[in-house]
Amino acid sequence: MKRGTRIAIGAALAITVVGLVGSLAIPMRTVKISVDLPPPINAKPTPRAKPVFIAMETDGRLTIEGKASTLETLPQDLTARFAAVPRDEQRVLIEMRGKSSPDRLMAVIDRLQGHGWKIGLIGREDASGGLTISEGTE
Asked: What's the rounded Cα separation, in Å, for the pair 34 and 28?
């Protein structure tokens, strides 16, 4: 190797070493940012209100948790049942017992939705092809 090339390589290595040592010796500049966070909330979540079950019998009779009702009085009966429950927590589940009339079911659903309730259906098909009650759990 020529003498000039060796000098150039040596100079490059010296500059690299000085740069590395200098970057390690000089402390890194840091930026401090303060963030104001709200205090932690230790509140337990409030339990959800239990749904009200409406049973629809094969013959079209309606019961609200065992108490007889009719299509006409259903909204008033539910309002009385939900007296202490906020409107956004009111849940209604319809249990289909046996082979229920689809027209009767739609009449019940339309009546309840017309008064603002959200509805869920509970039912399962039995061996004969009819709907039977399905045990719902919370």
From this structure: 19
Q: Does the pTM of the predicted model rise above 0.90? A: no
In angstroms, the CA 94 to CA 120 distance is 6
Distance of alpha carbon 94 from alpha carbon 98, whole angstroms = 13
Give me 2's structure tokens: 């020529």
Residue 86's pLDDT band, with cuts at 50, 70 and 90, is: confident
For 82, what's the count of Cα atoms within 13 Å in the CB-facing half-sphere?
A: 22
Q: Tell me which of 3.30.420.270, 3.40.50.150, 3.40.50.2300, 3.40.190.10 is the CATH number of domain 52-132.
A: 3.30.420.270
- How does DSSP classify residue 88? G
Given a contact cutoff of 8 angstroms between Cβ atoms, the answer to whether 56 and 96 are in contact is: yes
Position 76 pLDDT exceeds 90: yes
Q: Please provide the size of the chain in residues.
A: 138
Looking at residue 130, what is its pLDDT?
A: 54
Two structure tokens written together for 102: 């689809």
Average pLDDT over residues 106-129: 81
Diameter of the chain measured on Cα atoms: 110
